[in-house]
Write a sequence for this structure.
DNA sequence: AAGCACTATGCACAAACGTGCAGAGGGGAA
DNA sequence: TTCCCCTCTGCACGTTTGTGCATAGTGCTT
């Protein structure tokens, strides 16, 4: 029966993690086999019963973190990853550590805004469970494009967040970009859309990656059929370096006068800056330009990124300061 | 060099606990041997870099905890221990789990009152490190007796707490009991004593065991040469069931008119009840009478005890309710 | 009641891990 | 410099842990 299984998992976790018994000893006490105990412990970790966190001593922390932290005044977590790994492996490891790092930040009654993209998709696959009450996951920007509704891709991400935290999920069923700004204006007056916008306005946490225009291997947005040639040309002519939740900005963090933003469904940068906790996850040095812009725009309060990118970030800063 | 060793420990901990890499893989990235990684991880756990906690889901928790929690209105942690283990083994396991349970409760700027006794001694041996700033450990009651100053025994406990949390330690260099109440009055006016008393008055956390008069194997206080025959007779004639920090109480939690308390150096029960967080650690069913008295006196806000004792606690309650 | 579908269990093997020991390295002190 | 002392390292071995697979159990349907 599943009742005693949960209870056993709790007992096993206590004995293993708090009393340093071996699984063998625990198995004898629970009158079961050692392999069952091994599985009970996996389940306990998986279900969020066991919480493992690493406090990195701010003072003695690696110099890299300290430099970024001080310069941009944000909480930074550098993920140790060998520079020799390929993009996919790096992303996977950054995503796993990001997922476990944000776990402790999620609380009951939170309204959590989540963007979509390859980074968030990877993060969503590694979330550890944590039971919360009355939390809501709200989608930050639409995901439809010219060819597909984008529903499944973005909604898979949302669903994973929702089930990890036991939260309600609010999708945002609009395209990423409207063809005409006027349509956006019209839709923004629809009550179904307004419900989502109101939730976004009350977000306590926002989680997003960054897109970078000049990435070697371009972000979803720039390659996924969301923008036509004309749009891409317009971007190139307006000094845009990247985007967060399909809202574009320049290297200095400004976004005024970028016409594409008027058709984008993501939250205006000024609105995003209102959110108390804004967690930015970045993997891969090719995102460096987008990342610099996002930091210049003060879009993040927490930054999780791989070591190589972190190093690039401070190297550059070293040259200009 | 010790600098890069700490940094390596942090990296290793992140890779092991947050990215699920094997020690072998970590060793390759850090260009060292697997066994070194194993040791780095031990060090990381040991030094409090890695924090493992078990959240027990209040709702779905074992019935035993729920019953105690509701009846006494306190946070309870039942330590799973087979009833067949002997007292020493049980104490060791309760102490280890207690030490790891109180870790997360300790914060910077805390003033932590600590009693002494076999239970606290065991707990102090299992504390996990956690860096805090400006915390103070203050001794709750004197430890001297007729034969020795009791200094080393109690001060070892205090010292272990102090070094685990990086806190200043304030000893209380007085006997456990004065021979004459007048001496206590006199001493309580000494400035050296008053400094300690003032700290005690500002405690945010108190940690203590309980003594039980009728324990099969009597507490330190009743056997350690602290009390003479006359005292023990007086106790027997006043319905005392136990003590906390050498302050005695009856089964109903009352302590008025117990003359020995006038010569005791522990905090009055009323004063102890002022402390926001009062953590009581109990191991062994023979302490049941003392424990019941302490709970009746509402001395604890948090209770950590072994399973067998917990069961006895609710069984008895089942009979009287 | 029988059948079915699904999950939990124990076994056995392979992988991962902890630790005693011997040797290497790295400061002081003479 | 040379010696000594102490700490750190890697090896090798035994222990502990994870997991594929066959089986036993459990609950639901017909």
């Amino acid at each position: 029966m599943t009742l005693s299984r949960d209870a056993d998992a709790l007992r096993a976790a206590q004995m293993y993690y708090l009393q340093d018994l071996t699984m063998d000893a625990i198995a004898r006490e629970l009158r079961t086999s050692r392999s069952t105990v091994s599985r009970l412990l996996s389940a306990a970790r998986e279900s969020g019963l066991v919480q493992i966190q690493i406090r990195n001593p701010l003072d003695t922390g690696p110099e890299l973190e300290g430099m970024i932290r001080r310069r941009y005044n944000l909480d930074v977590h550098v993920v140790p990853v060998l520079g020799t790994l390929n993009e996919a492996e790096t992303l996977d490891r950054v995503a796993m550590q990001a997922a476990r790092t944000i776990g402790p930040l999620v609380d009951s009654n939170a309204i959590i805004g989540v963007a979509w993209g390859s980074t968030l998709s990877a993060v969503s696959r590694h979330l550890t469970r944590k039971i919360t009450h009355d939390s809501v996951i709200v989608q930050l920007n639409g995901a439809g494009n010219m060819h597909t509704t984008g529903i499944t891709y973005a909604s898979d991400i949302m669903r994973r967040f929702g089930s990890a935290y036991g939260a309600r999920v609010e999708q945002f069923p609009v395209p990423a970009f409207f063809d005409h700004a006027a349509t956006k204006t019209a839709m923004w007056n629809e009550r179904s859309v307004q419900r989502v916008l109101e939730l976004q306005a009350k977000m306590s946490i926002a989680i997003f990656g960054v897109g970078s225009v000049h990435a070697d291997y371009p972000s979803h947005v720039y390659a996924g059929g969301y923008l036509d040639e004309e749009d891409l040309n317009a971007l190139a002519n307006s000094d845009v370096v990247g985007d967060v939740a399909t809202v574009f900005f320049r290297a200095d963090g400004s976004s005024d006068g970028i016409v594409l933003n008027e058709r984008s469904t993501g939250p205006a940068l000024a609105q995003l800056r209102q959110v108390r906790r804004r967690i930015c996850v970045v993997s891969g040095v090719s995102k460096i330009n987008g990342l610099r812009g996002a930091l210049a725009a003060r879009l993040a309060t927490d930054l999780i990124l791989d070591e190589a990118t972190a190093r690039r970030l401070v190297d550059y800063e070293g040259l200009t300061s």
